[in-house]
What does this fold into?
Amino acid sequence: MKVEWQEYLSVGVEEIDRQHKLLIEKYNAFFTAYSEGRATEEVIRLLGFLEEYVMLHFADEERLQQRIGFPDYQKHRQQHQELARRVAELKERLESQGTDPGLVASTGLLLTGWLIEHISVMDRAIGRFVREVKDRGNQ
Ligand SMILES: [Fe+2]
It folds into this structure.
């Protein structure tokens, strides 16, 4: 199923929202490829993208959390490290065994969990905190 970025997912910082939208776009492209029977080719492109994306995106997001004094920073960082580790594992699997339906399924599951559990739960909490900090500043 394709995913649409919604305003409630906003973390209140344009650059981070832009990066999340890009991930959703890649997820949707992967989903389209899957429904058209091109997933084994697309998974190569997707894992190449994710390898770079996790480094840049997680670093940007962690910097933001530190800047605003986000209380769950450590827990959040741990989840980033876990996601990055899983991306690296899939990339290694691709390099050693090539692409196959098992790799496609594992990559799809990783991304779905990432969007559902990480972005819509963990990252949304950053958004709430950013708004709190802004409200406090306005009082
Ligand atoms: Fe995050």
